[in-house]
Structures are given as structure tokens and as C-alpha cells.
């Protein structure tokens, strides 16, 4: 029983220190997510975590899974049908090719430049990192757009791309995960199809049901348990039926808003104020997985992943913009605004590490993604500002001081 109060103490310290570290980071002009991860790192096993002799794995996994499914629901609900209609083929094309570009570049770079690690097949390592590389952290980019009040075709295209980016990333991750599980090409494609189509169809049906149930709840303060209950049911049923829980909860969010029409803001407004709390819990817990020995041992892998993903995003976005006949400014600069990577990538790394087949590489993947997240979240907003300035959609008189 002595471990129970220690668990609560650790969670309490992570919450309080994460909160104030995030506030300090904001005042200094840094993304809060970096502070959250650093607080988690501070309480990892090699640092302050040694004073908490608890088996954190017993409760960290459920909490991170819950947080990631809530994030997936929010991402799904942020994309509306009118938005998709306005985006047109250019947004879809750019989002698809920049995601594929990052995957291909990371896969080839890891395969070519990183030797076999601890007996892990090089192709498995390359596929694992490729699967995670396609996602982008929309928060950093959107924060820059809001800070500088950016408006124009470049900004509109960028908003559309970041809204779709994580959806593509989760789909590609499901395909790669199905491939890594093993089996023939036919079996792999069949499993991937079940993962993707089954999860989306289940999310669609669940989203319709959630929309109907929402109309029966009159009090706004009762919508939150309805949302949480729906997310928990959908994610767990998807897991039990070997479907992608992330795609199912993302589809739940998208279709719930679709079937609610203008009333969608009422449902999603109930969870909006909890978004930062979810991020705080998720990132601090992710940071506790940090191991300095893995970081120093695999510095070459961190650098290869960091640069390969950026190059893949820039080249993929340019290719997608060119074939969809987007403007020259979009073709040249949009990829630079897609550098940030954080929550979903860490969540996918944790998801991968929880699979029995990837026990050997899980720790390596998590620490590489944590390391690159810190770098991306520091440089990402600066890169986005650079792209928007090149596109001429940052006016000097509007810059916040």
C-alpha cells in the first residue's frame, strides 16, 4: 500500500511543476510543451525518479493511452466538411505528399546511415521511425498564425494541411504497424485495410450515435462525461476488436461534428478547456521515459531522424504543391512551416513500445522522439514564422511585442 501515496505524490508533483514550468516557458517565449517534457525528464528513473520506488508502468500506459485518444478526438473534431470543401485538392495533395515524403526520407536515411542496433533488423528500425515521422504538431504552427494575425492564401493552405496531417499520419502508422506484425503482403494489406476502414466505419457509427445522444443532454456541464464516456467506449471496443483506437476516436470526433452541424461547437466546447490539462499530463508522463544512456548512445540516430524528416517534409510539400498547381509561394515555403512534431509522435512511439513485437526497440524509439521533440518544438515556430514572412503574410506593424 505504500506505493499508492507515492504514485499520487508523483502525479501531483508532475502536475504542479508542469503547470508552473509551462507558465514560465510562455513568459520566456517558448512553447509550453517543451517545459512539460523537461519536467517529465526531471522525474525519469535516472534523475528524481530514483526517489519514487513505484512501478510507474502500471498506470503510465493507461493514462497516456487515454490522453492520446482524447487528443485524437479533438483533432478529428477540428476538421469540418466546409473546411474540406474549401481546401480542395491542393490541401489534400500537399498533406498526403509531405507525409509520404517524411516517411520515405526517414526510412531510407535510417536504413542507409544507421547500423544494426542490438540485433534489431535495420528494416524494422527504419520502418518504426518512418511510421512516426509523418505527423506534425499543429499547435506550434497555429500559435504562430494567431500571434501574427496571418491571413491570406498561404495561411489558409497551411491551416488546411496541418488539420489533415495527423489524420494521414495515423493512417500510415496503422499500415506500417500491420506490416511490422508480419505475414505475407496479402495478409499485411488485408490487416491494414481492416485497421483503417474498420476503425473509420466504427468511428462514423459512433459519431452519429454521439450526435444523437448530445441532443438528449440539455445541461452543458453534463456534456463532458458524455464525451469522455464515448471516447473510452470507442477506443476500448476498437482495441478489443484489433482496430486502430486512434483512427476510431479521430473519426468519432469528425463525424460527431459533421452530424451535429452548427451544434458541434456546443459539444467540443465542453472539452476545449481541458485540452491544455490533457497536454500537460501527456507530455510530462512521456518525459518520464527518458534515459540518458539511450540518448547518448544513439546521438547519430537522433541527428539522422531530425534532418531526414525535415527534408522529407519540405520536398514532399513542394512536390504536392507542384502537382496540384498551387502558387509558387506555397510550393517554395510551405514545407518550412511543417517542422514542429510533438504530441501525436510521442503517443505513437509509446503505442509502438507497448506492442510485444517491438519490446526491443521501444525504449530507443521513445528517447529519439523525445529528444527530437525538444528540438522541433524550439525551432518549429521559428521555421513557421520564416515561411510566413517569406510568403509576405506577416506584416511588421502586426507583430506582437
Would you summarize the structure shown here?
By secondary structure, the protein is mostly helical. It is about 75% helix and about 0% strand. The protein has helices spanning about 5-25, 30-40, 55-75, 80-115, 120-135, 140-145, 155-180, 185-215, 225-240, 245-260, 265-270, 275-285, 290-295, 300-325, 330-335, 345-355, 360-390.
Secondary structure blueprint with pairings:
Elements: H1 3-27, H2 32-42, H3 57-77, H4 81-113, H5 122-133, H6 138-147, H7 153-181, H8 185-214, H9 223-240, H10 245-260, H11 264-272, H12 275-287, H13 292-297, H14 299-323, H15 328-333, H16 343-353, H17 362-390
Question: Can you put this structure into words, describing what you see?
Answer:
By secondary structure, the protein is an all-alpha fold. The chain has one domain (3-398): Na+/H+ antiporter like fold (Up-down Bundle). It has 17 helices and no strands. It has helices at 3-27, 32-42, 57-77, 81-113, 122-133, 138-147, 153-181, 185-214, 223-240, 245-260, 264-272, 275-287, 292-297, 299-323, 328-333, 343-353, 362-390. The radius of gyration is 20 Å and the shape is globular. Mean pLDDT is 82; it is low at 396-401.
Amino acid at each position: 500500500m505504500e506505493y499508492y501515496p507515492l504514485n499520487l505524490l508523483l502525479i501531483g508533483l508532475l502536475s504542479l511543476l508542469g503547470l508552473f514550468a509551462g507558465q514560465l516557458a510562455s513568459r520566456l517565449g517558448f512553447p509550453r510543451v517543451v517545459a512539460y517534457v523537461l519536467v517529465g525528464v526531471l522525474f525519469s528513473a535516472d534523475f528524481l525518479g530514483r526517489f519514487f520506488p513505484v512501478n510507474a508502468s502500471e498506470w503510465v500506459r493507461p493514462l497516456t493511452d487515454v490522453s492520446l485518444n482524447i487528443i485524437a478526438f479533438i483533432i478529428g473534431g477540428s476538421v469540418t466538411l466546409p473546411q474540406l470543401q474549401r481546401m480542395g485538392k491542393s490541401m489534400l495533395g500537399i498533406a498526403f505528399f509531405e507525409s509520404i515524403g517524411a516517411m520515405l526520407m526517414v526510412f531510407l536515411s535510417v536504413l542507409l546511415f544507421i547500423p544494426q542496433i542490438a540485433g534489431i533488423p535495420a528494416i524494422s528500425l527504419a520502418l518504426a521511425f518512418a511510421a512516426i515521422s509523418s505527423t506534425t504538431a499543429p499547435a506550434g504552427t497555429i500559435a504562430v498564425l494567431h500571434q501574427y494575425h496571418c491571413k491570406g492564401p498561404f495561411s489558409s493552405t497551411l491551416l488546411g494541411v496541418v488539420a489533415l496531417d495527423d489524420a494521414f499520419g495515423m493512417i500510415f502508422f496503422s499500415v506500417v504497424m500491420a506490416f511490422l506484425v508480419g505475414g505475407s503482403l496479402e495478409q499485411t494489406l488485408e490487416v491494414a485495410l481492416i485497421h483503417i476502414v474498420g476503425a473509420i466505419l466504427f468511428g462514423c457509427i459512433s459519431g452519429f450515435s454521439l450526435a444523437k445522444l448530445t441532443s438528449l443532454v440539455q445541461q452543458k456541464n453534463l456534456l463532458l462525461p458524455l464525451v469522455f464516456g464515448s471516447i473510452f467506449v470507442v477506443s476500448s471496443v476498437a482495441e478489443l476488436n484489433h482496430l486502430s483506437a486512434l483512427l476510431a476516436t479521430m473519426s468519432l470526433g469528425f463525424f460527431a461534428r459533421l452530424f451535429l452541424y452548427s451544434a458541434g461547437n456546443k459539444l467540443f466546447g465542453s472539452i476545449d478547456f481541458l485540452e491544455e490539462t490533457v497536454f500537460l499530463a501527456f507530455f510530462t508522463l512521456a518525459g518520464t521515459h527518458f534515459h540518458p544512456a539511450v540518448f547518448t548512445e544513439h546521438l547519430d540516430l537522433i541527428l539522422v531522424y531530425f534532418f531526414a524528416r525535415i527534408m522529407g517534409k519540405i520536398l514532399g510539400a513542394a512536390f504536392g504543391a507542384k502537382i496540384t498547381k498551387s502558387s509558387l509561394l506555397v510550393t517554395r515555403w510551405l514545407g518550412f512551416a511543417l517542422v514542429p512534431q510533438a504530441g501525436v509522435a510521442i503517443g505513437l512511439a509509446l503505442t509502438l513500445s507497448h506492442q510485444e513485437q517491438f519490446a526491443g526497440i521501444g525504449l530507443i524509439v521513445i528517447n529519439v522522439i523525445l529528444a527530437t521533440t525538444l528540438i522541433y518544438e524550439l525551432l518549429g515556430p521559428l521555421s513557421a514564422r520564416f515561411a510566413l514572412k517569406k510568403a509576405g503574410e506577416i506584416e511588421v506593424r502586426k507583430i506582437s511585442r
